[in-house]
Amino acid sequence: MTWLAPWLPIAALAIAWEAFARSGAVTPFMLPALSVVAERIGADAASGELWSNLGATLYRSFAGFFIAAAAGIPLGVLVARNRFARWLLDPVISAGFPMPKIAFLPIITLWLGFHDVSKITMVVLDAIFPVVTAAIAATAAIERELLWSARNFGASERDLLREVVLPAASPQIFTGLQVALPIALIVDIVAEMKMGGVGLGGAMITASRFADSPGVFAGIVEIALAGYVLVRLMALLRRRMLLWHPEALAPATV
Amino acid sequence: MRLHLVSPDVLPSLSSVLEAWWKLALDAELWRSAGASLYRGAAGLALAVVAGGALGIAMAWWRPVNALASPLVEALYPMPKSALIPVTVLWLGFGDGSKILLIFLGCMLPVTLGAFNGARSSDQALVWSARSMGASRLAVLRDVVLPSALPELLNGIRTAIALSFILLVSSELIVARSGLGYLIGFLGEGGVYDAMFAVVLTVAFLGFFADRLYLLLYNRVLRWRE
Lengths: 254, 226
What we know:
- The complex is a heterodimer of chains A (254) and B (226).
- Chain A has 254 residues and is mainly alpha-helical.
- Chain A has one domain (51-242): MetI-like fold.
- In chain A, 78% of the residues lie in helices and 0% in strands.
- Chain A is built from ten helices and no strands.
- By secondary structure, chain B is mostly helical.
- In chain B, helix 5 runs antiparallel to helix 7 (137-174).
- Chain B starts with 13 loop residues before the first helix and ends in a 5-residue tail after the last helix.
């Protein structure tokens, strides 16, 4: 029964929501009952609307996330290992990271239009920073002795990269990816809210415009669930992929 | 830019952006928007720091609070808070209230986690020796736990500041009638692209500047550490 314990407060929250919404203290418009919201989600799932929205949102989030990962990891390793790249890119990264990139949304829309390309570009723009900074920190933290002994055994730069640098850096790089994936989801949803169109965020903002409050709350629950599943999947993937690493032996905290 | 490789609408030249910025600044429109945005951000962030910090330390200090709150924190932490934009509008309308609530909700948990991790990791030996020297529980909390929680708490607040800008701009872009995010959307829809670029760069600079300022403060506050 101990595995049930963490779920109790969440169940309590759900019951409190239902009770509070039914008590009449707030109008159903302000807070529809959880059962009404669940019914709405069920109806959306049955009509297929939920799946097309979810699919569109996940497609764009993942497309942006994979581009950010594919570009960000090599970039980070390069910046950490190459003096010229560091000189060139370090200021860009340290200035760009704390900037609210979402402010560039109207500019990206202006350049690339209202469709998938501009949303994916926004996702890449936001998700790439945690990946790059994690890759830089991970590569810079590799023990020199490892690199020296590999060189001593006659490893070429390529072997060094593949056999030493990337494996040694992978736990921290993975942490960067774990930060980047929820960001990718959020940015895509905000972009949908601003630009409209198919997707969980787009559906939610439409519901909000039509004062359809069960629709809005259904959107929140759907997005929360999607975010939760993604975070859990990444934690699972981490444990599987880093099985060879001593870290995997430690009790999982995520 | 000056070579007309691209249309000036798509990428206005830097000089015209600066000129537009200057015009906006003289017009006081920029200051009114920035004031509205900064008020919302500061109010939401202040609430988040107070409530989030208190919750995090309470979770580290009292076991029942932790048992009750940590599953909720864990479940709600990965939830994208921007999803709440339509709901806060439903509850509090188009004005300041909905933005402050959104920033408060979005920024609270990083502060809570920072305070919790920091307070939990405070040296148990220090706590015991303070207790054995006759310090009350409250005094231990104030003089031992709080100072040792400070570095992580301040890191949590740094994350919260970055988040507050993101939430502020996205909520103002989507639904608002004032503020920098609103101004960006308004200028963009009106086709005044040089001014739109000027406001976008202002927001980006403000976010960067706030982070740098915070880092200065952070290093000052933590000067007592080795």
